[in-house]
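The instructor's notes for this session suggest beginning with a concrete chain rather than abstract definitions. Hand out the sequence below and ask the class to guess, before any prediction is shown, which regions might be ordered.
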Amino acid sequence: MPRTPRQLLECFQQAMLDFSPDALADLFAEDAVYEFPFLAPQREAGRYEGREQIRAGFTRAWSSPHPSPVVGLRDVRVHETADPELIIAEHEFDAVNHATGESFTSGFVLILRARGGQIVDVRDYADVLRLSAGLGRLPQLFEQLRGTEQM
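After discussion, reveal the predicted structure:
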């Protein structure tokens, strides 16, 4: 029996905790789309198209910092929708900046669509300011913002 959207979300969360781009990418359909609507300095693209681009993108993004800054998830709220393929999940995660040893909390919202036991579409709305501040990357974020103003 194919995994439900909620089961896929649980696998997604575990892949994130394990910092495993392969485990994450393997949840996606071959032609899936993963979108990051909010700007973030750790992402070179706002959208990954296809399972292998998702795998490659997360491999690059998760290569630094290493190990994973995420140490746990909490306050997870999953919202079912009238569409059986679509769920919305709110998360808080506890993390640590390994360079400084400082702990921080950040959050994100996922809009996840699944079909046939695979994820076909994700929109990942991360709290980019808290994440960047926690990882010591606010200067990178501000520089990136300056670059978008000139476009």
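Then share the key points. The helical segments are 5-18, 21-25, 51-61, 128-134, 138-149. The mean pLDDT is 88.
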